[in-house]
Write a structure and sequence with these properties.
The structure is a single chain. The protein has about 140 residues and is mainly β. It has 2 helices and 11 strands; from the N terminus they run E-E-E-E-E-E-H-E-E-H-E-E-E. The chain has a 6-stranded mixed sheet. Strand 1 and strand 2 form a beta hairpin.
C-alpha cells in the first residue's frame, strides 16, 4: 500500500467523471471501484435519441475501462411518475451493440433500451422480426 509521510494511504473507492468541455462544469457520473461500476444519474430528459436509446460519451467509456470498471448504470429520475429507473449493462455489451452518434459534448455510444437491464431484471432483447408479422383478417 502506498505510504505518504509514514501514513498508509487509503485505497480509492470512488471517482468523479466530469463531462469534457462542459461550461459550466458538469458531472457525467461516479465510478465505484469496489463494485466495478460507473453510475450516471439523470433527469427524465436524460434519454438520448428518442425514447428507445440511452447513450454515454465515448470518452467516458474509454476512461472507465482504463480505470478497470466493467459495469455501467444510468439512473433516470422520472419526476412526474415520482420514481427512478436504473438501466444497467456491461461495457462489453455497450461496445458490441452500441452505435456511435454525435452528441453535444462529443461522440457517444447509444444502445437500444431493450438491451439494458431494468432495475436488475434481464434485458428483454430486440423484438424478433418474425413476431411482427401480421395476418390480415378475412371477413368471411
Amino acid at each position: 500500500m502506498p505510504r505518504r509521510n509514514g501514513a498508509v494511504k487509503p485505497l480509492r473507492t470512488h471517482k468523479k467523471y466530469p463531462v469534457p468541455n462542459a461550461h459550466p462544469p458538469r458531472c457525467a457520473g461516479w465510478g465505484y471501484f469496489n463494485q466495478g461500476l460507473f453510475r450516471s444519474t439523470r433527469s427524465s430528459n436524460g434519454r438520448r435519441y428518442g425514447n428507445d436509446e440511452l447513450a454515454i460519451l465515448e470518452s467516458i467509456i474509454d476512461e472507465i475501462e482504463r480505470d478497470g470498471l466493467s459495469r455501467v448504470e444510468i439512473v433516470i429520475d422520472y419526476n412526474t411518475m415520482k420514481k427512478s429507473i436504473c438501466y444497467g449493462t456491461t461495457v462489453a455489451t455497450l461496445r458490441a451493440h452500441g452505435r456511435r452518434v454525435l452528441g453535444v459534448s462529443g461522440p457517444e455510444l447509444a444502445m437500444d433500451r431493450c438491451l439494458w437491464s431494468i432495475d436488475g431484471a434481464e434485458p428483454t432483447g430486440p423484438v424478433d422480426a418474425r413476431e411482427l408479422t401480421i395476418e390480415q383478417m378475412s371477413l368471411f
